[in-house]
Amino acid sequence: MRTETSRPIWSQIEAAVKDVPGWSPADQLYSLFTLAVSSTHLGADLLEVGSWCGRSAVALGLAARLTGRGAVHCIDLFPERDDWYHNEDGTFSLRVSLQGGAVSAYTGQRVWAEAFERDIRPLYAKNPSLFDMFRDTIAARGLSPVVKPFRGTVETFLAAAPKDFRCRLAFLDGDHGYEAVCSDITRVSAHLVPGGWLCFDDAFSTYEGVDRAIRELVMGNRAFDFTQQMTRKFFVARKAAA
Q1: Environment class of residue 159 by beta-carbon count within 10 Å: exposed (0-12), middle (13-18) or buried (19+)?
Q2: Could you tell me if 217 and 182 are in contact, meaning their C-beta atoms sit under 8 angstroms apart?
Q3: Segment holding 200, helix H or strand E
Q4: pLDDT tens, 90-138?
Q5: Residues 168-178: pLDDT tens digits?
């Protein structure tokens, strides 16, 4: 699909993600799009940590394509069906084999059995590869030239990226465990340009690890000159000028 100048972008985003599995509501996607467009003057790229099937990546991709500025780098472990395992308490976690070894996730904040059976297991009945599902989502909307998936972690992405890599917006929606969120904040913030946006999904909703990390590392931190809960579960912070 192409962006239509006279058609409201809200309705374009809704149409673009209508059939994409995921949990990001339209108001959050619109907020991401708006921040990505309004920060174009900063240059630099867009970064997403935790991409799933590409729902929020579509919104960021539309912004990148419309403005013609920057790529969208989407970092995810993109777990295969057999990477998930059952914990003794009935919850689920995952372990993914990558070239650098095995990477575990959702060990601090585990996936509840009800959510797994309702939202995750049926997905793999259609395709055992989440990476393929993501790429199909992006390609079907003509966004492959601007949306670049990376299978790994923030650490391995930054190790492979150019040393001068910078982003103007980073959307953190990966592992929701406290230590994982803290690690993502610390690593990503170092590459966020002044005036750029650090954005969080599932903030101040039901994930204590996300909330605690934001309170300790972002709220009241002088490195950010604006912090605010924007929608029901979407929190943003703007990096202050040096």
Answers
A1: exposed
A2: yes
A3: strand 192-201
A4: 999 999 998 778 988 888 888 999 999 998 999 999 899 999 999 999 9
A5: 999 999 989 89
The answer to whether residues 103 and 95 touch, using CB atoms and an 8 Å cutoff, is yes
DSSP class of 141:
T
pLDDT attached to residue 143? 97
Cα distance between residue 219 and residue 221, in whole Å: 5
User: The tokens 């993502």 sit on which residue?
Assistant: 184
Tokens found for residue 144: 């492959």
- Domain 9-79+130-239 is in which class? alpha beta
Let me know: does 185 contact 213? Beta carbons within 8 Å: yes
* The pLDDT value given to residue 2: 56
What's the CA gap between 113 and 117, in Å, rounded? 6
Taking a C-beta distance cutoff of 8 angstroms, is the pair 148, 74 a contact?
A: yes
Within a 13 Å sphere around the CA of 144, how many CA atoms are in the beta-carbon half?
8
Angle between helices 9-17 and 55-67 (to 10 degrees): 140
CA distances in angstroms from 222 to 96, 218, 229, listed in the order given: 37, 8, 17
Average pLDDT by stretches of 10, the chain with 242 residues: 75 90 90 97 97 95 94 96 93 88 86 91 91 95 97 94 97 93 97 98 93 97 97 96 82
